[in-house]
Amino acid sequence: MNSIPNIGIVEDNDSVRESLQALVKVWGYHAFAFSSAEELLACKDLDRLDCLILDFNLPGINAQELISELDQLDQSVPTIVVSGTIDAAKSTQLHQSGVIAVLGKPIPGTELMELVKTTVS
Amino acid sequence: MRVLLVEDESFDEEAVRRLMPNDTTIHCVRTLRDAVKIVTQQSFNLILLDLGLPDSSGLDSFTTLRDSAPLVPIVVLTGLDDEHLAVLAIREGAQDFLVKGYLDSRALRSLGFAVERDKLTSDLLQEQAKATELEGDLRKREQELAHISRVALMGEVTAEIAHEISQPLQAIANLMSTIEMIAQKDQSTPASIPPELSKQIHLAIQLAQRILSRTRGFVRKSDAQRVSTDLVEIVKDTLLFVDFERKKHRIELSLNASDTPLNVLVDGVQIQQVIVNLLRNATDAINEAAKESGPIQTRQIGVRCFRRDQQVVVEVEDSGSGIQLDAEDPFAPFVTTKPDGLGMGLPICMRIMRSHDGQIKAKSTESGTIIEITLPEHSQ
Description:
- Chain A has a domain at about 15-55.
- Helices cover about 40% and strands about 20% of the residues of chain A.
- Chain A has helices spanning about 15-25, 35-40, 65-70, 90-95, 110-120, and strands spanning about 5-10, 30-35, 50-55, 80-85, 100-105.
- A 5-stranded parallel sheet of chain A has the order 2-1-3-4-5, sandwiched between helices.
- In chain A, strand 3 (about 50-55), helix 3 and strand 4 form a beta-alpha-beta unit.
- Chain A is globular and about 35 Å long.
- Helices cover about 50% and strands about 20% of the residues of chain B.
- Chain B has helices at about 10-20, 30-40, 60-70, 85-90, 105-185, 195-220, 230-240, 245-250, 270-295, 345-355, and strands spanning about 1-5, 25-30, 45-50, 75-80, 95-100, 225-230, 250-255, 265, 300-310, 310-320, 360-365, 370-375.
- In chain B, a hairpin with a 2-residue loop joins strand 11 and strand 12 (about 370-375).
- The longest helix of chain B is centred in the middle third of the chain and has 81 residues, at about 105-185.
- Classes of the chains: A alpha/beta, B alpha/beta.
- The interface of A and B includes residues 19 and 113 of A.
């Protein structure tokens, strides 16, 4: 595949979202940032996303619900969930819904991007 | 019944003895000194006191004996010509007076009344003392609750601040990684970052983040305390808890709650905290509105608990000025319209609700604000 991979970011905190966007771009990818799950679902080009970096603690529709919703729309995207605090049960549930990884915050930037790289290659 | 008769004249003593029923034990002394002495040694149900005694006369006889036996009812015996003295004695606390020479069945009845009246008075005093004690207990409990709630609130504030600081830290870490990548890609840039420096910056960020997550872990150890509870009960308890404040601010409160239990899986103290917070906000909003509209301001808070699509809902509606919803997000930290507010109340509520898989929303109405919290219903 020659085209540049598209990476989606869903994160409600402005500074974290913007810094992730910068990080994704500097690794040579296109970055599409959304501040909520609702915003992502409203996007018309969902099928063009190659990988999704998803914050676990979202207002409104939460990470788990978004993943199921995308599944139902037949629009599943390989997803990496990042989270400040998450209990084992929820983490297991996420893994069962097929996410690639659940990373605890503080997110190690390089590790996250290596994971993204593996996902899209 | 034991009666102490303080009387120096045998004739009058005999009259009294004839008057009293058979089951009465009458102990007669002739001087005030003997009377004062015996009331400290023996107990009596009633004292009959002639004011004119060899060693004392007039009102002094009464007050001296009263002070020596404050708990025993005293009925004064007087002659026909010194009734005014008897009236003075009654003002000083005598139960009644009897006129010598008229000791008949009516006099006896009034003695019975005197004893009864005294018993009622002392019962009443005892009840009052008990009530005061109970009230003290209640106030102590209220203070303890307030203390617990303050400590818990401290924890919440700490957790919230830790959470908020961790966000920019995360951003700094991401930006640092970005800058490193730029430097790595473009080796020709003379200002490329020395690897040692960037490593130290990452370590410093990690340290700060570890401190924050440890702080959070320290204050949030209550996840295990979630129990299935009727939310209506929690709401009722909470309303009781803020009842004093409500009355102080003259606020009318109505509760409209489902008759059937609305069970949720929660840490009750945390949910109470959310509700207290909402009620206090509602009170503040009403007080704030009253500053503009004055005494015509309606002072009402409505609380509703109900079920909606497998969710349990609590609504708190106030008759205040309404949140400026189009302004800043009221749930963002450090956003406040109160001059002395920290702006942490609603963000903390939000965090508590989210950690319970619940939600909190605000909407303005024509006549105030409704804040709604929802929690998943817990079925056993």
